């Protein structure tokens, strides 16, 4: 019955479901359902019976898809999204990390110390200057040079705000400021 009326059933289901592909898939599931079914009684209207089975299968499928979609949306809203990086991001991160390690190795010992002390340990530039017995301005220049060098090695832009208050300025969105006479003089050194 299903095979003989397949085209007519698919056309009717396509109208009901709005998609020929979905109608074909539902008819396939209907065939599988009938294959597994052990009920072999006389049916008054076989075509209507097949359409009912197919429509019920389509409803179950739509509910299942809607529930899965709702659950994935809920997971995203609650923050249960898989944060694990894909293989490409992992590879890029490893390569960037290796480039940064190589950049650290190329820094002078003083620049490396200043960079680690200020950025990793969170120490104040004044403390570092006192410890190294140099001016705070020299520590600022060394830190700037170290950050610019490391940023270039990993192809990253570096925030160009250094000195006292740099941490607060780094957390704000900074608009470009024209260089002062002092900055131009420092860059020439």
TrEMBL record:
Domain RNA polymerase sigma-70 region: 6-67
One of the protein's GO biological processes: DNA-templated transcription initiation
Signal peptide range: none
Chain positions covered by the region annotation Disordered: 167-189
Biased composition range(s): Basic and acidic residues: 180-189
Gene Ontology MF terms in the entry: DNA binding; sigma factor activity
Chain ranges of the RNA polymerase sigma factor 70 region 4 type domain: 98-150
Domain of life from the UniProt record: Bacteria
InterPro entries, per the entry: RNA_pol_sigma-70-like, RNA_pol_sigma-70_dom, RNA_pol_sigma70_r2, RNA_pol_sigma70_r4_t2, RNA_pol_sigma_r2, RNA_pol_sigma_r3/r4-like, WH-like_DNA-bd_sf
SUPFAM superfamilies reported for this sequence: Sigma2 domain of RNA polymerase sigma factors, Sigma3 and sigma4 domains of RNA polymerase sigma factors
Keyword terms: Sigma factor, Transcription, Transcription regulation
Assigned protein family: Belongs to the sigma-70 factor family. ECF subfamily.
Designated name of the protein: RNA polymerase subunit sigma-24
Taxonomic source organism: Tardiphaga robiniae
Source organism phylogeny: Bacteria, Pseudomonadati, Pseudomonadota, Alphaproteobacteria, Hyphomicrobiales
